Amino acid sequence: xxxxxxxxxxxxxxxxxxxxxxxxxxxxxxxxxxxxxxxxxxxxxxxxxxxxxxxxxxxxxxxxxxxxxxxxxxxxxxxxxxxxxxxxxxxxxxxxxxxxxxxxxxxxxxxxx
Length: 113
Hints:
By secondary structure, the chain is an all-alpha fold. Helix content is 57%, strand content 0%.
């Protein structure tokens, strides 16, 4: 994804390319592709890592059932400081009501344009 997006010249395309290459990095350096640690990971990638994992876990897929929200939140809490940037996890939790409202809206096909 990064290679396809990095050729774009807009700020949006540049941010998308940054997210594509960095959202699988882990705060403790055990992620990929670069093994980046902490603040070496671009902020956009650290933010999307939290949102992406929450969405992936709480959404049904052909190969797995959706996890209950509380189970996914516990995984985020448990991974804070190792997998995830603790500041990003804390910010996600502060905005949890808005996150869950958005998730409910997007999970309802009648509400998605």
